[in-house]
Write a structure and sequence with these properties.
mainly beta, globular
Length: 70
């Protein structure tokens, strides 16, 4: 994952008020491939959560086709 990548939560984190499928943006990389600061914003662009999460808690979102070799 890279800075400003879109991600979705892969698991529920009820203690943080976050649930599987919620979408956020990587805003800081603490340890490449391991730990990331993710910002979650509502429809109006207001931040409702910003949490440090591990890569296994996130799913990278692809906003364009992924080309695979045949």
């Amino acid at each position: 994952m890279k800075l400003l990548d879109g991600v979705a939560l892969a698991e529920d984190l009820p203690e943080l008020g976050l649930y599987r499928g919620q979408v956020g943006t990587v805003v800081e990389i603490y340890e490449p491939g391991v730990a990331f600061e993710v910002e979650f914003v509502d429809k109006t662009g207001d931040t409702y959560a910003m949490e440090t999460l591990k890569s296994q808690q996130l799913i990278l979102l692809h906003r364009q086709p992924i080309l695979k070799a045949a």
